[in-house]
Amino acid sequence: MPGARAETVAKPRQRRGFVVFRWLIYALLAADVALYARYGRVTELLDTAAWFVLLLLFEWETGGWPMPSRARVPVHAVRLLASAAIVLAVAGYALEREWLDFANETVWLGVVALLELEVRLPPQAQRLHRWRRRVAAVLYAALVAFLLAWAIQGLVGAEPLHALLDAWDALLWLVAFVAIELNVFRFGADDAPRARVA
Q1: Which residues contact 68 (CB under 8 A, 6 or more apart)?
Q2: For residue 65, which of 1, 6, 3, 4 has the smallest C-alpha distance?
Q3: Which residues cross the membrane (predicted)?
Q4: Residue 14: per-residue pLDDT
Q5: What distance in Å separates the CA atoms of residue 129 and residue 132, rounded to the nearest whole number?
C-alpha cells in the first residue's frame, strides 16, 4: 500500500469478544513464526514472518489505529521489505520444488491483492465488490484444499509432523484472514462503514 493512508473516520468500538478473538489469532500466529524458526525450513520462516509483519501493518491501517505522519515512511519501508521477503519465499519454494507451498503462496498473493482492492474501491462500485467477493471465495476454497492436503500428508505422509505444522499454519492464516475480512466490513461494530485506505 505505498502512499496509502487510513482515512480518519471515527471508528465505533467493536465488541470485546471479536477484538479478543482477533488478537488471540495474532498471538497464535506469532507462536507459529516461532515454530517455523525451530522446526521449519528457512524459506518457511521467511514466508511466515513476512506475512505476519504485513498482517500487523494491515491491522494498523484498517483497524482504526492512529498513524502519525512521521510513521508513514518507516511503515511503507517495512511493508516493502516484508513484500520482498515474500517474493523471495515464493522463489525459494519454486527452487526447492515445494509445489504445494508455491501454489499456496501464489493463491495468498491473490487473496491479498483482492483485499487491497476491497479497501480501495469506492462503496458505490457494487459490481466490482461482488466480483471481488466471488473471486475471493474461489481462492479461499483453494486455500482450504491446501489445508486438507497438508492434513492428509500429516496422517499418511513421510514427514507427518512437518505436514501437520503446515496444516496448522494454513488453518491459522485462514482464520486470521476471515477475521481481517470481518474487520474490513466492520463486523462487531455498530452500523459503521467498512474500513477504507486512501
Answers
A1: none
A2: 6
A3: 20-37, 77-95, 135-158, 170-189
A4: 63
A5: 5
3-state secondary structure the chain: CCCCCECCCCCCCECHHHHHHHHHHHHHHHHHHHHHHHHCCHHHHHHHHHHHHHHHHHHHHHCCCCCCHHHHHHHHHHHHHHHHHHHHHHHHHHHCCCHHHHHHHHHHHHHHHHHHHHHHCCCCCHHHHHHHHHHHHHHHHHHHHHHHHHHHHHHHCCCHHHHHHHHHHHHHHHHHHHHHHHHHCCCCECCCCCCCEC
Give, in degrees to the nearest 5, the angle at Cα 171 between 168 and 176. 125
Contact 40, 165 (CB under 8 A): yes
Q: What average pLDDT values come out for the chain (198 residues) when binned by 10 residues?
A: 45 72 93 96 96 90 80 91 96 97 96 86 88 94 98 93 95 91 67 49
What is the pLDDT, as a whole number, of residue 84?
95
- Whether the full predicted model's pTM is greater than 0.85, yes or no, is no
